[in-house]
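Hi Y.,

Following your request, here is the sequence exactly as I used it, all 101 residues.
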Amino acid sequence: MEFCEKCGGIIILKDGKAVCAGCGRKINKKLKIRTSEKVAEKKGVAVVKKEDNVNPVVDMRCPKCKNKKCYFWAQQTRASDESETKFYKCTKCEHTWRAYR
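Below is the corresponding structure, written out as tokens. Let me know if you'd prefer a different format.
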């Protein structure tokens, strides 16, 4: 890392030329650029498609088609001091409803 002799600012490369980041002074001496950082290969991120359902399947009868398996999730729909709302979605006809209790 190189520093400016005038103001002590760090020397950066701007448009291929060495300049001081603090005062903007151009540096004419040759700089040797090296790095000690090792870059690891990035791993891919898993993508969930809209048609993929990641919710758990529970035993609940669909009121529309009478199927016995439904997806289940809970969501906070009211104030934080009230209980969450439970939703169900049929695995067969995809009818969605909320549970009242």
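Strands lie at 11-14, 17-20, 57-59, 69-75, 85-90, 96-98.

Thanks again,
Q.
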